[in-house]
Specification:
With 146 residues, the chain is mainly alpha-helical. The protein is built from eight helices and no strands.
Length: 146
């Protein structure tokens, strides 16, 4: 396991088991650490219920967290808003192609039941963060080169 992969796995474990935060917040905070940027507390507060729309099963929090991060990071990289929107669209398409859906209720079909083990999506979160990091590295490199 590479150092970066080990870092991601440890961060997800800490955020889920020590801090008990959701997948969207875990995604944003981990990406912020990987890309060395500060995330305002208001953004973290906004992500509080972004895990399938408060466990409703709507859009996956890993997607929501990434889209928020792309908006923040895109602004920091001085990208035009239209380019940020295109990147978000491209990310959603690639995520859906890779994982078959953007919906929490399809990615986590058992829902959020009391009898489920805690942090059921931990391994998936680690994989999704790796996928997202690669996407951001590749796509932002292209944007900055133009």
């Amino acid at each position: 396991m590479t150092e970066q992969n080990s870092f991601i796995k440890n961060k997800v474990k800490d955020y889920y088991w020590e801090d008990d935060i959701n997948c969207a917040t875990t995604m944003i905070k981990t990406l912020a650490e990987i890309f060395n940027i500060k995330i305002d507390s208001q953004v973290i507060n906004a992500a509080t219920a972004m895990h399938g729309a408060g466990e409703y099963g709507a859009q996956c929090g890993l997607v929501e967290g990434t889209l928020m991060f792309i908006g923040i990071y895109g602004d920091m990289q001085k990208l035009e808003k239209t380019d940020v929107i295109k990147l978000c669209n491209k990310f959603a398409k690639e995520f859906e192609t890779r994982y078959t859906s953007l919906l929490c209720k399809e990615l986590r079909p058992e829902g959020f039941k009391e009898e489920n083990p805690p942090h059921l999506c931990e391994d998936f979160t680690v994989e999704a963060i790796r996928f997202t990091k690669e996407f951001i590295n590749r796509e932002f490199k292209k944007q900055i080169m133009y």
